[in-house]
Design goal:
The protein is an alpha/beta fold and about 290 residues long. The protein has a single domain, classed as 3-Layer(aba) Sandwich (Protocatechuate 4,5-dioxygenase, Chain B). About 35% of the residues lie in helices and about 25% in strands. The protein contains nine helices and ten strands. An eight-stranded mixed beta sheet has the order 6-3-7-2-8-1-10-9, with helices on both faces. Strand 9 and strand 10 form a beta hairpin. Helix 2 crosses helix 4, helix 3 packs across helix 5 and helix 7 packs antiparallel against helix 8. The radius of gyration is 17 Å and the shape is globular. The model has no long low-confidence stretch (mean pLDDT about 95).
């Protein structure tokens, strides 16, 4: 019988890769990288063999979609920010069986979902960035198998994403996998306008967004998810939630929705990045 062994909300800012490179910004995201390493370490200690990533950098316009190819290998350059991520190599095994089972459970719950095992369907950097750092220094046979879920759901209901997350948990429990589940996306996501972009590399664009993010994290620390779930649609709208914050809805659906009440552990404290709010946080399992 499979199980979720660890669940987290994580950043995937491309400045993490920039932080690796020599030059002006070397080391600027070390805290975020260290947070990813710690989450990966904990997951392996708990026996995780697979990572399911709710990736808000994968945009879809219709249906829910799962990339569950047999393997992923390539060299990635961001079309959005090629001056941040360029020629990033990756190689991971996939888990087609788990992806198919996730799609079946979601469809049985009336959430229209398709699982794809298509060699030409590449991973987005919302999956590639955390997998890079969670695998730093890890032998090949200890790397997680990867299943990526589209979470930039442009015309979808948050309610369906809660249902989808619950279906993912049921699928995992029917599988033979021990799974690390990652909601890969930001807090607020109001990018700085172009002329302010460079000066805001380490800031929020608006004080309003910073203040709301701080309040959200306070609610998380206190396990007050009934209140957070009630504010989530407005939070996503007024603070420009990345991908509509469907990653967060999926994560909470998996954990029990508004009935989830565990105090969240902050691994990387909230920080500003190119105007957006970011965090690494572990959501203790409620079972």
């Amino acid at each position: 019988m499979g199980e979720v062994v660890l669940a987290a909300k994580i950043t995937h800012v491309p400045s993490m890769y920039l932080s690796e490179l020599p030059g002006e910004h070397h080391g600027c995201r070390q805290a975020s990288i260290d947070g990813h390493k710690e989450i990966g370490r904990r997951a392996r200690e708990l026996g995780a063999d697979t990572a399911v990533v709710f990736d808000v950098h994968w945009l879809v316009n219709s249906g829910y979609h799962i990339n569950c190819g047999e393997r992923f290998e390539g060299v990635y350059t961001s079309g959005e920010l090629p001056h941040f991520i360029r020629d990033m190599e990756y190689r991971y095994q996939g888990s087609p069986e788990l992806g198919e089972l996730m799609a079946k459970e979601a469809n049985d719950a009336d959430v229209r979902t398709l699982a794809h095992n298509i060699p030409s369907l590449d991973l987005e950097y919302g999956t590639l960035v955390p997998m890079r750092y969670m695998h730093v220094g890890v032998p090949e046979d200890q790397k997680f198998k990867v299943v990526s879920v589209a979470a930039w759901n442009a015309w979808h209901r948050l309610e369906d994403s809660f249902m989808f997350g619950a279906a993912v948990r049921r699928a995992i429990e029917k599988s033979d996998r021990k799974v690390l589940v990652l909601a890969s996306g930001s807090l607020s996501h109001r990018f700085s306008d172009d002329r302010q972009a460079a000066q805001n590399l380490h800031n929020w664009t608006r004080e309003f967004d910073r203040q709301v993010d701080q309040r959200v994290v306070e609610l998380w620390r206190e396990g007050r998810f009934k209140e957070f779930c009630a504010m989530l649609p407005d939070y996503a709208q007024h603070c420009y939630g990345e991908g509509g914050m469907h990653d967060t809805a999926m994560l909470l659906g998996l954990l029990g929705g508004e009935n989830y009440n565990k105090p969240v552990e902050i691994i990387t404290e909230p920080f500003g990045s190119s105007g957006t709010g970011q965090i690494n946080a572990v959501f203790p399992l409620p079972w």
